[in-house]
Amino acid sequence: MLVADWILRVIYWGSIVVGLFAFVHAVLQRADAYSAADRKTKPIWMLITGGATLALALFQVQGPGLIFWVPAMAAVLVYLVDVRPRLIEVQRGRRNW
């Protein structure tokens, strides 16, 4: 196998792990935290992260499946970099240093 094939394989499996992490995190959060964080509801984020994880698992990083893989990865990353930190902040309470 070429080095590029190994890199794509690592990206593929890594994206599935990241998607599963986002989905499990969305499932484990309190439903009221989503509204307190001024984000979409818990069922919507569970659907988004679960569907995105499924798409990440079904479609490859290369070829025609890339058109589904990229938006799925974007959805998972939006959850991780925008929603997740806000949920953590809301549930922990603001800390004023």
Automatic annotation (TrEMBL):
Entry-linked InterPro entries: DUF2516 (IPR019662)
Keywords (A to Z) from UniProt: Membrane, Transmembrane, Transmembrane helix
Highest rank taxon of the organism: Bacteria
Membrane-spanning parts: 6-28, 44-61, 67-85
Protein name from the UniProt record: DUF2516 family protein
Species annotation: Amycolatopsis panacis
